[in-house]
Amino acid sequence: MKDATLITAKEHLEEVCVDLAKCDRLAFDTESNGFYAYKEKVCLIQISSPTEDFIVDPIAFKDISCLGPLFADPKIEILFHAGEYDVLCLKRDYGFTFTNLYDTMIAARILGTKELGLAAAIERHFGIVISKKLQRADWGKRPLTHEMIRYAQGDTHFLMRLADIQKKLLEEKGRMADAKEAFADLAELEPNVKTFDQEGFWKLVGREDIGGQAMAALKEIWLFREHQASSRDRAPFRVMPEDLMVKIAQAMPETREALAAVRGMTPYILERFGSGLLSAVEKGKASPPVTRPPSAPAERKRLSDLEWRTFEALRAWRKSRSEKDAVEPVVIMTTESLRTLAIHACRDHGGDPLGPLSDLKRSRYGEDILKVVATARAAKNGS
Hints:
By secondary structure, the protein is an alpha/beta fold. The chain has three domains: 5-187, 2-Layer Sandwich (Nucleotidyltransferase, domain 5); 200-286, HRDC domain (DNA polymerase, domain 1); 305-382, Orthogonal Bundle (DNA polymerase, domain 1). The chain has 17 helices and six strands.
């Protein structure tokens, strides 16, 4: 690979996008800092055209809107590997839309490939070993090193050649339509904006072993960690681990020495957060006992006996069909789709049992599914 072109200015990106808009396909990847920062953001965008590689630094300049028309242009095929995360991040941070996607990991899954990682695919098809040591790099740090840029470049440089190999295999196996349907679903994904749950301490592992004022202390410690994470722009688990919060609440320390004796306490946490943690414990002691809020009503309704029988029968059919087709079961249909299908088939009496299915899945699996549904219904009536 020749070195990628690093883009650190809006004007430079706009010039490059003029040329990229003339390409019939482009490969993309992103790097984010969710492992390190309180609020995750896209920190790097890798682009490969048929002839060049580019690295866009959205920290150096914020306006990357000129990429939007590329993503939205149906005449340009946009390639990702395991693109769900990238698509969601780009939609979340910039509001981009996507129309013509190709995902090499989704294609690999449909082809029945066992190892789905990009590094494995590059080694398998091109004989090149990609180092994984920068997978957990903090991409929000600057300056970027040459090693980081080179590593990031590799995430898009090979995608077009990999896609060419896959497309031939998809056509040979008659699975291109499946891939296109999955790519279209990928383009429609929408991000969920995470918000802090003030009652999240009730979900901590080990919480069930404490009660009374210790729970009030745990709540204050939970709120304290969140404030520290937000103010320092650090991922909460990097301020302190969840199990340590529970142990501090159990111990209810009143002195720095007692806090230092809590199992799992480190000199780093003690030095930076010791006073705040002791204050949180003290505040918890002085607070009224906390009571757990009522659980939100479950969104899912419990399946009826017939629906459950149908669902299990569909799962058994999917397992058999996936083995026959030499693909993962999720390629046939997701478990959630099977559940929806089972409910529809059993509740929509007199209607179309295959209602939730796409035209492709209806034509490919409809006859089998109707038999499964009819068998499950007959078994229920005969019991």
